[in-house]
Structures are given as C-alpha cells and as structure tokens.
Amino acid sequence: MLIGSHVSISKGLIGAAEEAFSYGANTFMVYTGAPQNTVRKPVSELKTDEGLAFMAEHGIEDIVVHAPYIINLASYKDDTFTLAKDFLHKEAQRAAAFGSRYLVVHPGAYTDKTAEYGINRIAEGINEVISRGMPDIFICLETMAGKGSEVGRNFDELRRIIDLVDKKEYMGVCFDTCHVHDSGYDIVNDLDGVIDEFDKTIGLDRLKVLHINGSLNPRGARKDRHANIGADGTNPKGADNIGFEAIYRVVHHPRLQGHPFILETPWISKTENLYKAEIASLRG
Ligand code: FE
Ligand code: FE
Ligand code: ZN
After folding, report:
1. Is 34 left (phi over 0), alpha (psi -120 to 50) or beta?
2. How far is the CA of 142 from the centre of ligand 2 (A)?
3. Pairing verdict, β 226-227 and 214-215
4. Which residues pair with 72 in a beta bridge?
5. What is the DSSP letter of 256?
6. Tens digit of pLDDT for each residue in 30-87?
7. What distance in angstroms lies between residue 258's CA and the mean position of ligand 1's atoms?
8. 115-131 vs 78-97: helix crossing angle, rounded to 10
9. Alpha-carbon torsion, ordered 71, 13, 275, 262, to 10 deg
10. What distance in angstroms lies between residue 37's CA and the mean position of ligand 2's atoms?
C-alpha cells in the first residue's frame, strides 16, 4: 500500500522526504510553495537531488504535487485565467523535476457564470497548457465538495471536462474522500456503488491519486472541512462523520490499489499532527 500525507516543502524536497519518512510513509504530497499564493522559489533552491536520493534509499515513491488552490481555470476574468494557465504550465515542470507524475488541481470555480461555462473554460485552459508542451505527467482533477460555485462536485462534471480535452493521455483524477462524501456520495454504506459509478462515468483507469480525509460534516453538506480519521468528540478538531471503518475499506479496497493514498487531515495543534498514527492504523 502506498500511503503518506501532505508534508512541508519549506526545507526543500529533502525536508519533505525526511518528514514523510518520520511518519512511516512510503509516499507524500507537497505544494511547491504556499498553497494560498503563487510565489515560488526556483527548483534549483529546493534540494531536489538530495531529496530524490533520500527517497530512493528509503523506498519513498510515486509522490504527488498539489497546485495552489487559488489558481482558477474556470474564471471568466482574463487576468485570472492567464495566471492560472501560466502557473499550471510551470507547475508541471516543477512536479517533473521532483520526479512526480501527478499534479493535483482543483478544477476551478465559475463564480458569476454557470457550471457549463466553467467546464468549457477549464477544458480550454488545459488544452492550451498541454499545447505549450508537457512533461510526462498527469493533470489530476480533484473531486470537489461542491461548496460555492466549485466545478467538479460530481463525477459527471469531471468527465465532461476530460471529454473536452484533446490530449486525454495527460488527464487523471484525484478522489478525495471528504469531498466525495460532502458532495453527497455514500462512501460509508455503499463504497462499491460509488466506485462503480466512478468507473462508469469517468473510468477507473483515470484514477491516479486518492486524498484520505474524514469529514466534520454530514454527507451532502457541501462544506469541505477535513476531520482526523475516525476522530471522536475528544479530538480538538471535531468528530469524523465518515469514520475509521469506512476509510479503512477505501484504503484496502482491491479496485483502489496501486495509487498513492494521501492524508490531508488537520494538525491538532501548531506543533502536533496525527499522520504517523493515522498511517499506522490504516495500514492495519
Ligand atoms: Fe485539494
Ligand atoms: Fe484534497
Ligand atoms: Zn478539501
């Protein structure tokens, strides 16, 4: 099983790999800088060679890069749309320099327009980014919780974007358990049914990455607030509405193997997280 968590890039790729190793992980996910802005250090300052050597020595592989969540490919505003395309194109090169094959992207938010508009705009943006030249990488559209005007609140919206992309060999999907639950899919009582629907709508061959999170909210709440796996009322961040058993079934499901499972569960204080314990208990 490939399992790890989001880790910090603040000490370069070597710092990220060492942090992941300290949690008992064999994969991990990074943002290439702060997730809420697009300021990025050159890759040459991120100790990439040291990081790749450490990963090879410690059996850490199939790492994931997450694009910052402020880029919005669905925006009708030309400056926002241009920034998103330029950033995504550079981010693909950075991900490849990290040896990653998976660049996770939130599809975007259509704001004052319509979902239809957003879907078309996102595909247009991706087509342009790919046409500028791409490394050997999958752009992985993330399943979203459906808060506000988020595109990707169901499998069909992701499929419609991919349908409009010319070079589909670059397209993948990231399945986020919190988001899928919050958008209304019943992964607690009918995981097999949800996987079937994903397969029929998008195709399981497009599944590349899974984000493994509990949810602070009931199914269908469209909130997107992550909980620690199986957390009860004593957890300072709140109780998990998905629950340990359901998440355990996800990470052990035979149809979901071979992809990195990445925890994005909350830190319980400024200095303490549960990644090590969560990884150990999910491995079982
Ligand atoms: Fe995400
Ligand atoms: Fe996620
Ligand atoms: Zn989320």
Report:
1. beta
2. 7
3. antiparallel
4. none
5. G
6. 999 998 888 999 999 999 999 999 999 999 999 999 999 889 999 999 999 999 999 9
7. 20
8. 50
9. 50
10. 17
pLDDT tens digit string along 171-194? Answer: 999 999 999 999 999 999 999 999
Six-digit token string for 213:
């999170």
Per the structure block, which two tokens stand in for 183?
Answer: 């958008």
Q: Tell me the CA–centroid distance for residue 55 and ligand 1, in Å.
A: 23
**Which backbone phi and psi does 207 adopt, to 5 degrees?**
-75, 120
- Tokens matching residue 207: 């599944």
**What six digits make up the tokens of 18?**
């060492």
CA torsion 269→272→276→281, rounded to 10°?
A: -40
H or E, element range at 207: strand 207-212
Tokens of 167: 């070079």
d(CA 7, CA 260): 14
At 174, which amino acid appears? C
Neighbours of ion ligand 1 (CB under 5 A): 142
